[in-house]
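Progress against Task 2.4 (sequence-to-structure conversion) is shown through the following example record, which the project officer requested during the mid-term review.
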Amino acid sequence: MVISSLGSELRQATLRLARRIRQQRADDELSPGQSAVLAVLDRTGGSSPADLAAHEQVSPPSMNRTLNALQLAGYVSRTPSGDDRRMVVVTLTEAGREVVQATRVRRDVWLEQRLERLTPAERELLERATPVIRKLTAE
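Structure tokens generated for the chain above:
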């Protein structure tokens, strides 16, 4: 298989952009992995530690350390499951919801500031390319 120059350039550019966006966190003490867990919990409303570990592709002990740190910071709470008292459901606290929202705002502001530096033609090109990029990631 021959890798195209476009494929290589696009991969490098999107990875660099994603990395820079992920660096924009409302709480600089949070690791990227901790931020990702908070975002998952915000989308799902709650999850088991095992499901979070599978989603984030980490070991259960690693997820437990992440959850311990997030709980200590006051961002998540663990409660027994209503279905099986041996199981635990992890949910965001109000502080957790606030840090997720503040992180999203910070990331949007960071990106908007960079977009403002572009020419109108460059911004229009990115606007047209966005649905194509979404199509690439839809599978």
